[in-house]
Amino acid sequence: xxxxxxxxxxxxxxxxxxxxxxxxxxxxxxxxxxxxxxxxxxxxxxxxxxxxxxxxxxxxxxxxxxxxxxxxxxxxxxxxxxxxxxxxxxxxxxxxxxxxxxxxxxxxxxxxxxxxxxxxxxxxxxxxxxxxxxxxxxxxxxxxxxxxxxxxxxxxxxxxxxxxxxxxxxxxxxxxxxxxxxxxxxxxxxxxxxxxxxxxxxxxxxxxxxxxxxxxxxxxxxxxxxxxxxxxxxxxxxxxxxxxxxxxxxxxxxxxxxxxxxxxxxxxxxxxxxxxxxxxxxxxxxxxxxxxxxxxxxxxxxxxxxxxxxxxxxxxxxxxxxxxxxxxxxxxxxxxxxxxxxxx
Length: 344
Prior knowledge:
Strand content: 5-15%
Largest sheet: 5 strands, parallel
CATH class of the largest domain: Alpha Beta
Number of strands: 9
Radius of gyration: 20 Å
CATH topology of the largest domain: Rossmann fold
Order of helices and strands: HHEHHEHEHEHEHHEHEEHEH
Number of domains: 2
Helix content: 40-55%
CATH architecture of the largest domain: 3-Layer(aba) Sandwich
Oligomer: single chain
Number of helices: 12
Shape: globular
Distance between the termini: 47 Å
């Protein structure tokens, strides 16, 4: 894939992006070795533990792992798990979590009592972080800020190696080899293709009274991640994220002038639901935009594309569209009124 040098990404360090990508790829063996350790120990089910952005980022893994294997996979909110401990979560379970900061309050709290009760917790975090120091199973995240796709690639080595060891993903080695060789250069090229598209989207949407976001399937988590974490938290923009399946059971009545619809379209069987929302928007002639992951190519074999679609989506909308919103709103993505400003 040729990366055009004529497109300049605003507020983006290309060499650092690729350097961080190499750092992630260098962790492949560590992630795979840990997967082998966990597999040999055995486990009855998998709990993907997160909160906020982490929970949303795990969304596509819940969907894909459940499609690949008969192992029960649950995506759970850390605060809820601390409040009501699921009966199926026990010493035979495997808990997988992540924290860029390593001190996410709810995740640290959950990891503490789980370890005390002998429940295995694998964390993707800094080894020297608060979370990293308290757990026995840590995949050191060499890139802890900036880009979700770096986290996704590192997690993919572990998650899909587990599936391979279960006999559910025989082509894992070929997938991981291609992922390691191509993914970050391909995602950089995709970001450049999306750059003018993202700029146009942001120019049309940044000053809306509020925006309705819809998505489904493997990309529902990405829809939540962008609308809630990037726009609500980091841009103070009012959003209404709604699953495409639920769009027609309430939210459709909110569409009017200055209330645009943003449709995130995936490539799995749920795409029909995304198409239904788009056809409705065409029918009533409302303002809407579409991000369609199928418009962006990678060099991995097509059979592996389902694993890459969330990476493509987060690279474009979370990674780049947020920057264009920032350019138009003049609101720095790093500025918060309340989040992590004091104890609450």
